[in-house]
Amino acid sequence: MHSSGKNNIPVYSIDRFKRSGHYTYFQIEIFDKNRDFKVQYPHRHDFYEILFITKGSGKHTIDFFEYEIKPGSIFFLSPGQIHDLDLSEDISGYIFLFTSEFYLINKNDQNKLLELPFFYPLIPGSPPLYINTIEEVKTFSDIFIQAIAEREKNFEDSPDLIGALLDILLIHCKRLYPQNAGDKMNKGRLLVKKFKQLIEEKYQDNLSVKDYAEHLAVTPNHLSETVKQLTGRTSTDLINEKLLVEIKRLLIYSELTVSEIAFQLNFSDQSYFSKYFRKLTGQSPAEFRNFADKK
User: What are the residue boundaries of the HTH araC/xylS-type domain, all occurrences included (predicted)?
Assistant: First the structure.
């Protein structure tokens, strides 16, 4: 599903994937080679995605991290992440797209999505869940099949039932998703996830740690100490990680000049931007672009 040539990376809203008569705040359906919305790859969304593969193979690239696609793979995408798919002809599975509003509408805890380990993960990348038993594959398949059938019924309360099935799906995923001892959600972990979510929303503003701390209503020291304790990295590391991914994306997939990229990401001037990029990568932006073009 790779696109050829350089284009700006599109951002798709969920209504881009809406079929006639279906809902605009979630979409669930069979995923195969016949599923064609004429989308450009790579792209990003402003909603959440769960992709469950039951047959076929390939490669899923999420924010420059590559993951193997095989039967029993479940991939999770948070808003803002860019992904690209390289799929075999026999690919088959299910896909569930949903907005935060759909999931949280009846939830007392509005942080519920952030409490799941696979959305806005604390570790770099977005590792999939690989399930291996026939029983687990059947459990997940049955949930998707039931949700698709309910969507087709289109009763007044169908969204409520589909929301309940999404809850069941996410709970099963949470139970099976690999987690380290001590990964239980607490105020510190929630703060770091909110920080990562905010970076996704505000990275183009090129904010400082102090600015992010103000948005999160904490002191810069508290934010930095919490990030360091839970990730082993600094707050600046997380900001730089996101900025670096975005710079690389623009250098690879857009026709923008280095100066235009610097301006778009709110750097004071091209010289500082180039020094920043070289410090993090060991290459100038032009060297990185030339190397990427030759690959």
Answer: 193-291
Cis peptide before 42 (omega within 30 of 0): yes
pLDDT tens digits for 218-255? 999 999 999 999 889 999 999 999 999 999 989 988 89
Cα(3)–Cα(14) distance, integer angstroms: 20
- DSSP class of residue 179? -
Tokens encoding 59: 């490669």
H and E: helices and strands count for the chain: 10, 10
What token pair was written down for 254? 């857009």
pLDDT at 199: 95
Residues 6+ apart with CB under 8 A from 233: 227
pLDDT > 50? residue 65? yes
State the sign of the Cα–Cα–Cα–Cα dihedral 270, 272, 275, 281. Answer: negative
**Close Cβ partners of 124 (under 8 Å, ≥ 6 residues apart):** 65, 241
When pLDDT is cut at 50, 70 and 90, the band that residue 4 belongs to is very low
What is the rounded CA–CA span in Å between residue 224 and residue 154?
Answer: 48
In 10 A of CB 179, how many CB atoms? 12
Fold match, 11-176 / 187-294: no
Burial (0-12, 13-18, 19+ Cβ within 10 Å), 155: exposed
CA distances from residue 163 to 37, 120, 144, 148 in whole angstroms, order as listed = 24, 21, 12, 12
Architecture label for domain 11-176: Sandwich (2.60)
Give pTM, 2 decimals.
Answer: 0.83
Domain boundaries, the chain: 11-176, 187-294
For domain 187-294, give the CATH number.
1.10.10.60
pLDDT > 90: percent of the chain: 70
- Measured from the Cβ of residue 188, the count of other Cβ atoms closer than 10 Å reads 14
Element of type H or E holding 50: strand 48-55
Confidence of residue 106 (pLDDT cuts 50, 70, 90): confident
